[in-house]
């Protein structure tokens, strides 16, 4: 079960809390700080394999684990944030800025048993509203992927259903192949 700080906070105050970068990640939604559940083995393996698959199929994008994305009055931490390299701000030394203040191009969440599906969906809808091109909510228990895209109804993909990816990617994936990543060695 995830923890929360129920007192109303401002986003600025939330980002100053010393515990905000602890693991598991804390998110800020509607004035409340919420801690995501601690990932378990299946979740972590799926996350690791998704990162590798996405990175191996694109030069224009990078897949990042647990990247804090602060925008539109929220601070969310997708399990996998896919961001175009040219959108990552760099400092004077040419190093990436620590704070990412935009939605990712593609937000992927892996639903944990102790996690509220509605909270995850709410975060994905928020990402889409503010410019994210694609959102996936992966449900390992149901072996399905709920897909979000701008100006489209959400769709559920199972089995051999092809999943959308970003247009500049060569990645071709189905719902089955996502779950094969957990058992493939």
TrEMBL record:
Domain annotation Putative restriction endonuclease: ranges: 11-156
InterPro entries xrefs: Nuclease_put_TT1808 (IPR012296), Restrct_endonuc-II-like (IPR011335), Uma2 (IPR008538)
UniProt cross-references to SUPFAM superfamilies, sorted A to Z: Restriction endonuclease-like (SSF52980)
Keywords from the named record: Endonuclease, Hydrolase, Nuclease
Gene Ontology terms for molecular function: endonuclease activity
Protein name: Uma2 family endonuclease
